[in-house]
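Field log, afternoon session.

UNIT: design team B
ACTIVITY: writing a sequence onto a fixed backbone
BACKBONE:
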C-alpha cells in the first residue's frame, strides 16, 4: 500500500490495546512506531531511582533540572534506553505504572517528552500512540484514531500482560490502577486525555487485532484513494 508521508496518531485510555495495534499497523505500513507512554514511564523510573519522587510527592525543581541532561531515547528497534541502559522491562512494572500518571501531569515533563517525539518523528511516516498525540503533540496528524474498550476487557488485557511478564497481579488492584490512571490522565490541567474532534473512534472490545488493522487500512485507502 503506497501511502504518503503522514502521521497516524492513536490515543485512548490505558490498556485499550493501543500499543499492540500501533506496532502492528506500523509494521504493515513500513512506518516507524513511537510509544509516547514509554517516555513517560522512562522519566518515572528515573525519578524513582534518583529519589525525585517519594510516594506521591514529586520534587519538581530537582527533577526538572535533571531532565535537562537525561539521555532518554528509543533505539533502532524501538526499545527504550537511558544512555546505554535498556529500561524496557523496568518501565512496564506495576511500581512504575502506579506513579507514572502524576509524573505525566507535570508540564515540564510533558514538554520534555513532546520534544523527544518531534525529534523522532521528523520524517513523519510514524504511528504514534499516547493520550494527547492527536490533540497536542501532533494536532496536524493526518489520521487520528481514538481507541476505547470496556473496562472489563481492558482489565483482563492488563492482567494477562502482567502475568506474561512473570508478575503476580491482583485483579482488583489492576482495575483500581486503570481507574486511577484514567482519572488523573483525563483531569490533569496540561493536555488531558480527550478525544480529538477530528478523530475516528475505534471500540475494539469485540475485535481481533487483525480486524482493527484491516479497519484502519480501509480508512486510509478511502482517504487517499488507494486501490492496492
Ligand atoms: O500508554 P501507557 O500506559 O504506557 O502510558 C503511561 C502513562 O503515561 C499513562 O498513565 C499516561 C501517560 N501518558 C500521557 O500522559 N500522554 C501520552 N501521550 C502517553 C502516556
Amino acid at each position: 500500500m503506497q501511502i504518503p508521508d503522514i502521521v497516524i496518531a492513536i490515543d485512548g485510555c490505558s490498556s485499550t490495546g493501543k500499543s499492540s495495534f500501533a506496532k502492528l499497523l506500523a509494521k504493515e505500513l513500513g512506518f516507524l512506531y513511537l510509544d509516547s507512554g514509554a517516555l513517560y514511564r522512562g522519566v518515572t523510573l528515573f525519578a524513582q531511582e534518583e529519589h525525585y519522587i517519594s510516594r506521591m510527592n514529586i520534587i519538581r525543581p530537582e527533577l526538572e533540572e535533571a531532565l535537562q541532561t537525561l539521555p532518554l531515547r528509543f533505539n533502532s528497534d524501538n526499545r527504550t534506553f537511558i544512555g546505554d541502559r535498556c529500561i524496557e522491562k523496568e518501565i512496564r512494572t506495576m511500581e512504575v505504572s502506579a506513579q507514572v500518571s502524576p509524573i505525566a501531569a507535570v508540564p515540564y515533563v510533558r514538554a520534555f517528552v513532546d520534544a523527544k517525539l518531534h525529534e523522532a518523528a521528523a520524517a513523519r511516516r510514524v504511528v504514534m500512540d499516547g493520550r494527547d498525540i492527536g490533540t497536542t503533540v501532533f494536532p496536524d496528524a493526518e489520521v487520528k484514531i481514538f481507541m476505547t474498550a470496556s473496562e472489563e476487557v481492558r482489565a483482563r488485557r492488563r492482567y494477562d500482560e502482567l502475568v506474561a511478564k512473570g508478575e503476580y497481579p491482583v485483579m482488583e488492584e489492576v482495575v483500581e490502577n486503570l481507574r486511577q490512571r484514567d482519572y488523573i490522565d483525563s483531569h490533569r490541567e496540561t493536555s488531558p486525555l480527550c478525544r480529538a474532534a477530528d478523530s475516528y473512534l475505534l471500540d475494539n472490545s469485540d475485535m481481533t487485532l487483525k480486524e482493527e488493522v484491516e479497519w484502519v487500512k480501509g480508512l486510509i485507502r478511502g482517504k487517499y484513494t488507494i486501490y492496492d
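LOG NOTE: The chain has a mean pLDDT of 94.
NEXT ACTIVITY: expression trials, pending approval
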